[in-house]
């Protein structure tokens, strides 16, 4: 089974299924918690739901009990002979709270244990994922933002809320991340031995493929799905990083917990990357950026002059975003990682092409993959070599794009150690 596909071999397990506590706080998005519960149980997790008393105003106890096949309690005074306020947290492999309201974030930050869910959070020694949902004003309030920073500094994964329609007619940041993305975030933290080596790090990833317009309805594009960049973002979130994903036309959903910056063309991608890279600890260029764009972009749709005439399009080079990021770097950070898609007859030629590209781009690491013989674009798996300066290289045998992403972050962590040995 692929590692991003739910239950994995080698997971910490109780019985034969990973044990997850799903906390549900009292917000309208509690109804979406039902979908998170379905997603978790259907992908083989043993889920105990701990709603707060307020959450039960939105979705009642019978729904949680029926769908989880476990008794449901929200107060420490229920089932007290089982000491559930201690056992649930201690025995869980992961605790996820969806939705996490402003009130729940505040109580978690301050170690308040005034109901079963906050007691579970105090006793849990496993990874904890909080999926906030609240009105934009509450999310942006300095108290909430301070609480989120404190929780993240402790290694708790606080997903970025999504933006969009809120409870009423209002629109803004504060929507619960997509339930499927929350389930994926839980699967991801369960997939590995808990590691939070990216806590406090700010990373920027580009993903997808740019489109270069030549009139209002036509463009030159490429077949990149954005899957590798999305996996890099997802794994970085689960290792505790603050992630900005600069996304050019993804054909897979963006993961929960990232700050999303949608772009279209190479020029837009350059602007967003330069802005996001300032103050970042690492930048990974996984996007397939067009090397050429039409020299002229027509303002109205270009018409065929007649049935038989051909047309030609004059192209001009785009900026090399990766090289530009390297050129503008001031100091040792951010660590800059490039990707290289090469066609080569054998491993030696591939390594040689990779070495030349690493030298040309000047980045710290280059993730090289062969695109001639194997399907890479849009595929679930890949096989790469991570080249570093001074001739270092890490070979990653055929693996899921999530596992390759972890290998990239491992290499970035090594770069930080070399760059700032006293950090
Ligand atoms: N890249 C970039 N800006 C461009 C083109 C590529 O930042 N205009 C980045 C890609 O995101 C990738 C790396 O450069 O991280 C290498 O991309 P690749 O397509 O393999 O190489 P090119 O620079 O386009 O060179 P060539 O196609 O000639 O091999």
From TrEMBL:
GO terms for cellular component: phosphopantothenoylcysteine decarboxylase complex. GO terms for molecular function: FMN binding; phosphopantothenate--cysteine ligase activity; phosphopantothenoylcysteine decarboxylase activity. GO terms for biological process: coenzyme A biosynthetic process; pantothenate catabolic process. The keyword Lyase applies. It holds the Pfam family Flavoprotein. The keyword Chaperone does not apply. Keywords: Decarboxylase, Lyase. Residues 19-189 form the Flavoprotein domain. Residues 198-413 form the DNA/pantothenate metabolism flavoprotein C-terminal domain. Signal peptide: none annotated. PANTHER family: HOMO-OLIGOMERIC FLAVIN CONTAINING CYS DECARBOXYLASE FAMILY, PHOSPHOPANTOTHENOYLCYSTEINE DECARBOXYLASE. This is Unannotated protein. It comes from freshwater metagenome.
């Amino acid at each position: 089974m692929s590692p991003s596909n739910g239950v994995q071999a080698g997971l910490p397990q109780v019985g034969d299924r990973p044990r997850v506590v799903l906390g549900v706080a009292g917000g309208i998005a509690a109804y979406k918690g039902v979908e998170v519960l379905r997603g978790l149980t259907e992908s083989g997790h043993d889920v105990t739901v701990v709603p707060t008393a307020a959450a039960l105003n939105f979705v009642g106890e019978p729904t949680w009990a029926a769908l989880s096949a476990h008794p449901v309690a929200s107060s420490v005074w229920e089932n007290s002979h089982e000491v559930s306020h201690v056992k649930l947290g201690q025995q869980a492999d992961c605790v996820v709270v969806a939705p996490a309201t402003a009130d729940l974030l505040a109580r978690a930050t301050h170690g308040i244990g005034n109901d079963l869910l906050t007691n579970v959070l105090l006793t849990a020694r496993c990874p904890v994922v909080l999926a906030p949902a609240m009105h934009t004003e509450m999310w942006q309030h300095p108290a909430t933002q301070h609480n989120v920073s404190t929780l993240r500094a402790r290694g708790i994964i606080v997903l970025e809320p999504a933006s969009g329609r809120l409870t009423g007619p209002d629109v803004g940041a504060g929507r619960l991340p997509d339930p499927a993305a929350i389930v994926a975030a839980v699967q991801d933290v369960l997939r590995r031995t808990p590691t939070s080596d990216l806590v406090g790090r700010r990373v920027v990833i580009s993903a997808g493929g740019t489109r270069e317009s030549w009139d209002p309805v036509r463009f030159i594009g490429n077949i990149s799905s954005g899957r590798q960049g999305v996996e890099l973002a997802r794994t970085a979130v689960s290792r505790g990083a603050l992630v900005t994903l600069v996304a050019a036309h993804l054909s897979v959903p963006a993961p929960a917990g990232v700050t999303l910056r949608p772009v279209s063309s190479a020029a837009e991608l350059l602007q967003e990357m330069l802005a996001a890279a300032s103050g970042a600890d690492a930048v990974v260029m996984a996007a397939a950026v067009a090397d050429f764009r039409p020299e002229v972009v027509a303002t109205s749709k270009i018409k065929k002059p007649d049935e038989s005439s051909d047309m030609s399009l004059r192209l001009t080079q785009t900026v090399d975003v990766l090289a530009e990021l390297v050129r503008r770097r001031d100091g040792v950070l951010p660590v800059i990682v490039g990707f290289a898609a090469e066609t080569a007859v054998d491993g030696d030629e591939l390594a040689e092409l990779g070495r030349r590209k690493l030298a040309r781009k000047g980045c710290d690491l280059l993730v090289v993959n062969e695109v001639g013989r194997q399907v890479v674009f849009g595929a679930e798996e890949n096989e790469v070599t991570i080249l570093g300066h001074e001739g270092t290289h890490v070979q990653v045998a055929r693996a899921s794009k999530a596992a390759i992403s972890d290998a990239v972050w491992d290499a970035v962590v090594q770069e930080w150690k070399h760059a700032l040995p006293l950090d």
